[in-house]
Amino acid sequence: MDKIRIRGGRPLEGRIAISGAKNAALPLLTASLLTDEALVLRNLPHLADIATMTHLLAQHGTDLSMAGAHPGGGHMGQVLELRAGDITSTEAPYDIVRKMRASVLVLGPLLARCGQARVSLPGGCAIGTRPVDMHIRGLEALGAEIELDDGYIVARAPGGLRGGTVVFPRVSVGATENLLMAATLAKGEVVLENAAREPEVGDLANCLNAMGARIEGIGGDTLHIQGVDRLHGADYAVLPDRIEAATYAIAAAITGGKVELLGAQSSTMEAVAAALGQANVSLRPTECGVMVECGNSGGGSSGGGDRWVHSIDVSTAPYPGFPTDLQAQMMALMAMADGASMITETIFENRFQHVPELMRMGADITVKGATAMVRGRGGPGGPGLHGAPVMATDLRASVSLVLAGLAAEGETIVNRVYHLDRGYERLEEKLSGCGADIERLTA
Ligand code: EPZ
Where are the chain's structural domains? Predict the structure, then answer.
């Protein structure tokens, strides 16, 4: 199993190209099932989860062809043409779904296109039980007959799905996406209330409209979809990954460096920019993306003000709030801040797996229920963190250990980096390109 070795203490300086968003690419790939015409997707990141999804779609009968890298050069991701001309299987097997929860996003499209689907229940993962009850209830509200059999969701809608209103009891990105895709081919109008407003949901809606869907209210928490008889192909580019961009913003901050995030969209990072601004880290839009630098008060390399990271309190929330996918990374930063901070996780019930590993590096963290109290080790005269062998447990927890390693004194070895490969394209390359001493050790 591969490991990553980091020798910390070097400020990051330079530019990092931001890849296409994993959490937009995954639902966009499943949207190809809604039409028998070609869907061309551009700026797809090279990630393990993307490969898993293409494998799942191929076993449904989708033809895939790599339409070559983007002519704009390496960092513009891969181009894929998908054509689900003839769906040969409406079953999503356990051995694929258990590897990647997002596989459940084939449920809505298969039901809408074929009138049936048999999709394995995704099961839980490190961060929580992650049920799919809202996906199921929502589809039943549109006329689907669904039962659970032997660990599978068995769904039927022989006469097609009908219009109706779905009110989500809590905000769910995946349930919104499954229902949105199913609704595009329903007979009548579908209204989704308390829908997720994440930019990745908007990206999916915009692509579906490019395929001939009729979706209104994009970006808001109520979506209106007029069902149509069929969708056609489209050519669509995936939006940049705001979580990857924010992760590298924290990498710049935790090392006291200055990095330009190429292609990052500041409009999707407002809650992050506000939080980091309070922590004395500035995110400034540039022509090519977003510039990140320590020292809001002009305390960057141009002198003046202090350059220390200040402690702040953070509570995760659905978009446009502070993203749960950045909670672990923010905790690593607060471990190097100049005071005490409270970090509260409101979305998942078990998303503090990174805490014991950060503590092995000297972080001072106390967890009480959904809140972690972090006593920062940075600031003038602070003891800082020290390198250690640590274990990755889930995607974002893994990257928080890399961030801590970049700031720690000495050597950090991160084990089980396959978690990282699910969501971060060429991480070592992007960081070493800005001066980090980071290397992948292949077992
Ligand atoms: C998406 O997961 C993302 N994954 C997650 O990113 C992200 O953390 C999450 O949204 C929240 O923003 C993808 O987009 C592929 P939810 P999803 O449905 O859709 C509960 C990463 O690191 N819930 O918004 O599965 C659920 O248990 C990943 O890139 C139900 O109770 O998340 C959770 O507590 C991790 N019943 C909360 O809602 C349901 O039917 C939010 O989950 C569905 C969800």
Answer: 3-18+240-441, 22-237
Q: What strands lie across the sheet with 116-120, from one edge to the other?
A: 91-92, 116-120, 152-156, 145-149
Tell me if 406 sits within 8 A of 4, measured CB to CB.
no
Per-residue confidence (pLDDT) for residue 77, from 0 to 100: 80
Q: Which CATH superfamily is domain 3-18+240-441 in?
A: Enolpyruvate transferase domain (3.65.10.10)
Choosing from 125, 207, 294, 434, the catalytic residue is 125
Q: Whose CA is closest to atom 14 on ligand 1? A: 23
- Whether the CB-CB separation of 358 and 365 falls below 8 Å is answered with yes
The superfamily in CATH containing domain 22-237 is: Enolpyruvate transferase domain (3.65.10.10)
Q: How far apart are CA 40 and CA 79, in angstroms?
A: 7
Handedness of CA 337, 420, 18, 245 (dihedral sign): negative
Q: Is the pLDDT of residue 10 over 50?
A: yes
- Chain length of the chain: 443
Give residue 132 CA to ligand 1 midpoint distance, Å.
9
Is 434 a residue of the active site?
no
pLDDT, tens digit, 9 for 90 and up, residues 241-252: 999 999 999 999
Tell me the pairing of strands 187-193 and 162-167: parallel
First to last CA, the chain: 5
